[in-house]
Amino acid sequence: MLLFTTLDQVEYSTSAIMKLYRLRWQVEILFKRLKSILNLGHLHKYDKETILTWLNGKIFTAILIDKIIRSGDVFSPWEYSE
């Protein structure tokens, strides 16, 4: 694997950079799932207030889904694991 970064080599070890990279991809996968499952890819509103209300509703729905899944002791698609 070849990974380019602007992080300082003195402050961040190779393993720390790889952990950050893997975590970043977990966030990317989460957003891809949210866009797909909850239809977050396209905004159907045009003014700031309704966009924020719509997005907050979708995020609230995602949190509720995750809570329901976790309460059932079932694997959550939003759960990060190493």
Instruction: Calculate the mean pLDDT score and round it.
Output: 82
Shape: extended
Taking pLDDT < 50 over at least 5 consecutive residues as the criterion, the unreliable ranges are none
* Beta-strand content estimate: under 5%
Structural class category: mainly alpha
* Rg, nearest Å: 17 Å
- Number of beta-strand segments: 0
Describe the structure.
It is a single chain. The chain is mainly α and 82 residues long. It has one domain. The protein has helices at 14-37, 48-71. The protein starts with 13 loop residues before the first helix and ends in an 11-residue tail after the last helix.
Quick tags:
82 residues; mainly alpha; 2 helices; 0% strand; extended
Q: Helix and strand layout, with pairings?
A:
Layout: H1 14-37, H2 48-71
What is this structure, in a nutshell?
This protein has helices at 14-37, 48-71. The protein is mostly helical. The model has no long low-confidence stretch (mean pLDDT 82).
